[in-house]
Amino acid sequence: MTERPAQRTPNRQLAALIAEAGFSNAGLARRVDQLGLEHGLDLRYDKTSVTRWLRGQQPRGTTPALIAEVFTRRLGRRLTAQDLGLDACAPVYAGLEFAASPEEAVDIVSGLWRKDSGSHTELRKIAFTSAGLVVPSRDWLIGRADEKVARTEPPPRVPAQARTALPRPAELLARRRATAERGPGHRVTGGDISALRSVGELFRTLDDAYGGGHARQALVRYLEHECEPMLRGTYGEQTGRRLFAAAADLTRLAGWTSYDIAAHGLAQRYFVQALRLAQAAGDRPYGAYVLVTMSRQAVYLGHGREAVQLARVAQQGAGGSVPPVVQALLQAAEARGHGVLGEVRSCTAALVRAERALEGARAGDDVPYWARCFDEAQLADEFSHCHRDLQQFRAAAQHAERSLQLRAAGYARSRLFCRVVLATARLALGELDQACQLGAEAAAQAAEMRSVRAVEYVRDFERRLEPYRDATPVRTYRDKVAAYG
Questions:
Q1: For residues 328 and 324, what is the distance between their CA atoms, to the nearest angstrom?
Q2: Which residue in 18, 38, 208, 345 has a CA-CA distance of 20 to 30 Å to 378?
Q3: Which CA distances in Å does 165 have to 155, 158, 162, 172, 176?
Q4: Is the sign of the CA dihedral 269, 270, 275, 277 positive or negative?
Q5: Do residues 89 and 58 touch, judged by C-beta distance below 8 A?
Q6: Centroid of chain to Cα 152
Q7: What is the pTM of this model?
């Protein structure tokens, strides 16, 4: 006697959401396929597939997460696979969620740290999705500050007979060992937060000088083994805000170093989580800075429209009370987006606003630590990149030269980028010898760094050299670069 197949339960949750979203079965299938393409997945769903899901069949792999994201975009609220009556999975969208609470934010970001510090190399291959920028930036802009971030627990009860007994030396040693390694319930101190800040400065310096690939993994392991236990420890309201601020800064830096090695999907997830941690910290200006970082990544990947939108959300969220240096930083980010789009008038207007804002800066201004590097050298760098993108090469060369004159040696990677912009401008102006000399200097620097962005800048210059490949300066350039390995 053959067994009859088990009866599936119709998925009423999915049916209700399809009706709310106004999708046809074919329309939902098409959107899931399109979203899969953003992540390099060749999916072939159709209206029959959706009919099966409605009858209770569970889609495989990461598809439940993709379906949930389709509804999240359509309905404007975050939905999970479980909300759709589907089985949970390891979603391709893990990390792009803007958590509903500080506790959930800690769970999401610590999951990223753990996977990234392990052998999950597929995490570094996840694709960047421009559509994944919309919900987090909107939720940050309209979201309210978290009312409470403090974590407290009652002190452990001590037996009466033990209260008056003096601890033995072995017990004292055991207690010291227990408090030396943080665990759940560890009381976070001001010294802990100062240590997080110092570590951030150290890794920032390494990144600026040698590229994101040199110490990225060490930073992620530090976040997993030191920062996460603090976030899961105990702290009052004021200490908690400072702790979340420090965690946001380190998480943004983990994203920045991931971006520098071309792990763009992973970087995007770190930036989203840094944005959420900044909200828990109650630090609105820093959240705007994270959005500017996301805008810069969008510029690099050619998503100019999204870059402009992120910069404008940052400006709106930061408000008008931020120092002039921060205003200049925000306006410059918008200019870069317009530059990629070739929008001359809008780009020029944003650059003028940035320049005027920086001119209004005074020595006594209370400038946040993360904005102090935005000075005349950085503004000149922004101008040079924008003029290059707008094909205004004489202006690009003038601003690039000024930036190189002003920029400190410690910002080696930024100097490399600017040198390539100058080489590109010289090439466009017909100065082939000088362009090749500058390009060779940049290639020598790139060989000393672990930065995919640095290599890509040099490769972009080399592509521009192709029409002149038989010229003597270009052959000399290639010989030099070959010697660098």
A1: 6
A2: 345
A3: 19, 11, 5, 13, 18
A4: positive
A5: no
A6: 31
A7: 0.81
Task: Per residue of the chain (485 residues), give pLDDT as tens.
Answer: 443 444 578 999 999 999 999 999 999 999 998 887 766 567 889 999 999 999 988 887 778 888 988 998 898 887 888 889 987 655 555 788 899 999 999 999 999 999 898 765 667 778 888 878 888 999 999 988 899 999 986 444 444 443 333 344 444 333 334 334 555 568 999 999 999 999 999 999 999 999 999 999 999 999 999 999 999 999 999 999 999 999 999 999 999 999 999 999 999 999 999 999 999 999 999 999 999 999 999 999 999 999 999 999 999 999 988 999 999 999 999 999 999 999 999 999 999 999 999 999 998 889 999 999 999 999 999 999 999 999 999 999 999 999 999 999 999 999 999 999 999 999 999 999 999 999 999 999 999 999 999 999 999 999 999 999 999 999 999 999 998 87
Please state, in angstroms and rounded to a whole number, the distance separating the CA atoms of residues 13 and 61.
20
Q: Are 481 and 443 in contact (CB under 8 A)?
A: yes
Question: Please, what's the b/e burial string for 190-215 (b: 16 or more CB within 10 A of its CB; e: otherwise)?
Answer: eebbebbeebbeebbebbbebbbbbb
Instruction: Give me the DSSP letters along 51-112.
Output: HHHHTTPPPPTTHHHHHHHHHHHHHSS---TGGGT------TTTT----SSHHHHHHHHHHH
8 Å CB contact between 223 and 250: yes
Burial of 102 (C-beta count, 10 Å sphere; 0-12/13-18/19+): buried
- State the DSSP code for 372: T
Can you name the residues that pair with 235 across neighbouring β-strands? Answer: 151
Tokens of 299: 């510029």
Rg of the Cα atoms in the chain:
26
Token digits of residue 26: 């074919």
- Helices 452-465 and 472-484, packing angle to 10 deg: 160
Residue 468 amino acid letter = Y
Contact 284, 318 (CB under 8 A): yes
Amino acid identity of residue 187, one-letter, is: R
Q: Which residues are registered as beta bridge partners of 187?
A: 234
Q: What separation, in Å, do the N-terminal and C-terminal C-alpha atoms of the chain show?
A: 71
